[in-house]
């Protein structure tokens, strides 16, 4: 049977959103203590990781992580207690969504084509009906 996985994000209106990328960034910052190490590990630029972190921190009344500028101690980043709470809440919801999706979509997933790797098909051009000749 094909393996299906639901990916989702939580939109917070005009405040921003929380999704798997931002949560993964927080998790790697928690483990490494460094935004640059987290960015490298996740295959993103430092600038992009910084913008994700700033966007995440601006979504809430308290920061999910704090970064310190380099210097003698080398700087670093740390996930706040609120950030750990955010990670736990998102991962808990994600597990529940995966479980529900598995139960509700099992019949559909069984019908998915079995391939070794997903290869998206090239988009096909729209075919327009031939134009009528003008008299």
Short description:
This protein has 135 residues and is mostly helical. 47% of the residues lie in helices and 9% in strands.
> Architecture of the domain at 10-89, according to CATH?
Orthogonal Bundle
What is the 3D shape?
Answer: extended
Spell out the CATH superfamily of the domain at 10-89: Winged helix-like DNA-binding domain superfamily/Winged helix DNA-binding domain
Beta-strand proportion: 5-15%
Distance between the termini: 58 Å
- Low-confidence stretches are none
Main sheet specs = 2 strands, antiparallel
Strand order, main sheet: write it out. 1-2
The assigned structural class equals: mainly alpha
CATH topology category name of the domain at 10-89: Arc Repressor Mutant, subunit A
- Based on CA atoms alone, the radius of gyration comes out at 22 Å
What's the helical proportion of residues? Answer: 40-55%
User: How many DSSP helices?
Assistant: 4
Number of strands: 4
Mean pLDDT: 85
Q: Which CATH class of the domain at 10-89 applies here?
A: Mainly Alpha
């Amino acid at each position: 049977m094909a393996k299906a996985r639901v990916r989702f994000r939580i939109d917070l209106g005009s405040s921003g959103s929380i999704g798997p990328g931002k949560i993964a960034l927080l998790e790697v910052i928690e483990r490494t203590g460094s935004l640059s190490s987290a960015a490298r590990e996740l295959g993103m630029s430092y600038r992009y990781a910084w913008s994700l972190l700033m966007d995440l921190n601006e979504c809430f009344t308290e920061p999910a992580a704090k970064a310190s500028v380099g210097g003698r101690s080398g700087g670093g980043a740390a996930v706040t207690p609120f950030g750990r709470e955010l990670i736990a809440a998102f991962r808990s919801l994600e597990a529940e969504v995966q479980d529900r999706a598995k139960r509700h979509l099992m019949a559909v997933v069984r019908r998915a084509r079995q391939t070794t790797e997903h290869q998206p098909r090239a988009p096909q051009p729209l075919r327009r009906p031939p134009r009528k000749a003008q008299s």
